[in-house]
Amino acid sequence: MPQTRKTTSFEPSAHGREIWGTTIFDGNAARRGYPLNKMCFSFNEAHNRTEFLRDENAYCRKYGLDEAQREAVRRRDVLALIAAGGNIYYLAKLAGIFGLNVQDIGAQQTGRSVEDFRAMLRAAGD
Amino acid sequence: MARIVGGIGTSHIPAIGIAMAKQQCEDPYWRPFFQAYGPVRNWLEAVQPTVAIVIYNDHGLNFFLDKMPAFAIGAAAEYRNADEGWGLPTLTPFPGDTAFSWHLIESLSAADFDLTTCQEMLVDHGFVVPMQLMWPNTPAWPVRTIPIHVNTVQHPLPTPRRCLKFGEALGQAIASWPQDERVVVLGTGGLSHQLDGRRAGFINKPFDLYCLEKIERDPEALARYSIRDLVELAGTQGPELIQWLVMRGALGSAVRRLESNYQVPISNTGSGLLLLETAA
Q: Domain containing A34 — which CATH number?
């Protein structure tokens, strides 16, 4: 995968070009994702996690998720959740409900097996 | 007078706390990582700090996106952690020092840094994991603590330059506290990592090693970056480096490096450890 400027000089850049495979969680994303992130924030409380598991759709409705957000939650699709304004720290609390850790969601987002994703992380040390 | 005895840069990822809870520190994967903390713990034992000021970012426990401060400081008598959504165990509360907190708030405000003040504050893994790394298996925390949160969640984030200057003002604020305290400043997070997007798993070892060198000898070199630069060079969560810059700024110009370590990968990160002693 493209890894920009990995071994080049570390001069600050003058441009603001988009970074491949990367979403900056800015005001637009924060506005777009507010209901989704608010729902995920509620998972700090164990009783909310239980309520979500009891009736996922009802819980998403309660927080006013739009259709794209609800569909992304239904599919456990991290890239779609980010496209719908999800912030990874809040999404991590949702992923935790399904027993997924950061390697699991890294593998999912990069289209690799978890073993391949871990191998890629190890290769970063070479 | 209060005196800064040193600063420590350290990772704060949840996987470390989980490995400690599961007693996996001697596993081949974790052993080199935890071993590097031995000399740091020995140093803490020798210098006996009385207060730890912990620079970290809240990851959605105490602060939600309804109100997101750029800088926030604890001013509570004690700080508690919580399960953060994953069922993490709650620990012995961390003692605070409200008088010292309010002194820092007053001094920093006079130096043009206006902080959100928190008389109640839950601390998440960004604060808790470094405390556990410094003082493992302790029945009672041997230091009073002051948490300082820097927003690295919702852009725009404070610039690296501003964080270095904030650290400098923090150092002056600490030095002007008349109580006789030995203060250690923990700068936490990083180094390069990216949890989200198709570039998830991005780690930049050469840049991490460059940062470890520059944070010690030439932090101004890191203050030149924009946050966007840090995202490009160190991943979406790479800007946590600004918390190290706050720590470094507080130490003043002359420091001695006592320990440095770099492990990759630790979970999804390049993990740095740096112990800097203030040179009198």
A: 1.10.700.10
